[in-house]
Design a protein that fits this description.
6 helices, 271 residues, FPG_Glyclase, Znf_DNA_glyclase/AP_lyase, Helicase, Ruva Protein, domain 3, metal-binding, alpha+beta
Length: 271
Amino acid sequence: MPELPEVEVSRLGIAPHLEGEQIATVVVRDRRLRWPIPDAVEQLAGARINEVERRAKYLIVHTDKGYLILHLGMSGKLRVVPADSLVVKHDHFDLVLSNGQCLRFNDPRRFGCVLFSREHPGIAHPLLVELGPEPLTEAFTASYLHTKAQGKQQAVKTFIMDNHVVVGVGNIYANEALFKAGIHPKRAAGRVSLARYQRLVPIIKETLIAAIAQGGTTLQDFTQADGQPGYFKQHLNVYGRGGKQCMVCKTELTEIRLGQRSTVYCKNCQR
């Protein structure tokens, strides 16, 4: 499933092709996504696109007629292609621009979404109103995280992956950040000191920023008919390396399931 850096790179890739353009028409080939594509999206015909924003793993297309909400789900991808280019299987939705280009949404597994909101979704849509702060903003601080954790016996890894606490810290990045911070993923969130959160929060930010920077090399893919950014090639310390040696101390890395997700850590480096 695409995580925050992949979605942010999607935003960076499509925004220059959309912002300032006018929507000529909306094409819905199949409404059957995670939620049915509403008829209301067709109201966007004739609208001008002002901005493409990311909130958590949602992309929000701002127009003067309302807001288009996009989520890639597990297999969705967005491409900017000529509007008359060949339609392939699972091309469910087109946002056709007056310049002859279109934003095309392809989703084989149909867990993505295409929704509409008259008001800004961050204040009006039930999928977004209760989300926690963005991890790369000043609202996400060690003191905020420490306060939210008070009294919680929940494992710190699942705590920082909770979108009601902070958005966008997916499984890969939670594994990596906790390793770099030296925090055991099963430690109760309420038993992590403020000092340790003061180490963890900047590491989360640095880890996500590095992933976004690496993903920037895939921006050209958004104008290719078969292009998609996918996961970026990254230097990973623990994720996907269960049973291998820790790169720091050479101890064998342990892999467990935590919150139904693969969790890899070093018994020696993480306490």
